[in-house]
Design a protein that fits this description.
Blueprint: H1 5-25, H2 29-40, H3 45-64, H4 73-100, H5 102-120, H6 133-150, H7 154-161, H8 168-192, H9 198-219, H10 227-253
């Protein structure tokens, strides 16, 4: 929980940074935000993930406002078949780990952050042909698990989608649609299970307008920003933060 006002300010600062990175690179907002908040001890993982879900919905809404017609609905439906059930199970696991094995939850987050940071530096080569139902189901399973635990399932799905031999604009629109659907579903699941709180809603109400403004502002200057340079910086940040989370968790677990 966010305890004092200064923590709320730090929370929003991390969110703004995540929105900048998301706008430039296409993903990593959830992971960067989760990692930063957990590292600084601003809020617990479950709270931060709930707010990140609201933020991601806003970010994808802004991103899809002009290109929703380019979404490949076949990809979306096939990924969702395993994504949504995996998310529901992972949310239950999140509740359990938060109460009984919080350091293990942090350790797992650190590993996910390190792997995602490494993937960020890879320029995936397209497959020779589109992935079939099995491949889409497996990536949905992985994305749903990470999405349920940390509201950051877009990373593996982004890597997978960028390897599909389809138009880049279709990939971006479809990826945004997957992230939008997953965060909406996660928010509904939290609300139905009674885990939603007024504090989550309050912080989200402050964070969402901030994300929209930052996204629109950065979009105006994208042609002046080197995506490769930003990817390298984010890679180093994620690697450092993830490594610290792993080290800190292992020390406390031993």
């Amino acid at each position: 929980m966010i305890e004092i006002e200064i923590n709320t300010i730090w929370f929003l600062a991390v969110v703004a940074l995540g929105a900048v990175v998301q706008t430039i690179t296409g993903f990593a907002m959830g992971l960067l935000t989760m990692a930063g908040i957990t590292l600084l001890g601003i809020a617990d993982i479950a709270f931060a993930a709930a707010v990140v879900s609201f933020i991601s919905m806003a970010n994808t809404g802004v991103g899809l406002r002009k290109n929703y017609g380019q979404v490949d609905w076949t990809y979306l439906k096939r990924i969702s078949v395993t994504f949504l059930p995996a998310m529901a199970i992972a949310l239950t696991l999140l509740t359990y780990l938060s109460s009984h094995f919080y350091e293990l939850l942090k350790l797992m987050l650190g590993v996910v952050v390190i792997v995602a940071g490494s993937v960020l530096m890879i320029s995936p080569k397209p497959y020779a042909r589109k992935s079939g139902p099995i491949g889409l189901s497996l990536i949905g399973l992985l994305g749903g698990t990470i999405g349920g635990l940390y509201s950051a399932g877009g990373g593996p799905i982004a890597y997978f989608m960028y390897r599909q031999p389809i138009d880049l604009s279709v990939i971006r629109a479809s990826l945004l649609a997957v992230v939008g659907l997953s965060t909406l579903a996660r928010t509904i699941m939290i609300s139905v299970s009674g885990l939603m709180s007024w504090e989550i809603l309050l912080v989200s109400a402050m964070a969402v307008p901030l994300v929209i403004l930052v996204t629109l502002w950065v979009s105006l200057y994208l042609h002046h920003i080197s995506e490769k340079f930003v990817r390298r910086v984010v890679y180093l940040v994620l690697l450092s933060v993830g490594g610290f989370l792993v080290f800190d968790s292992v020390v406390l677990l031993i």
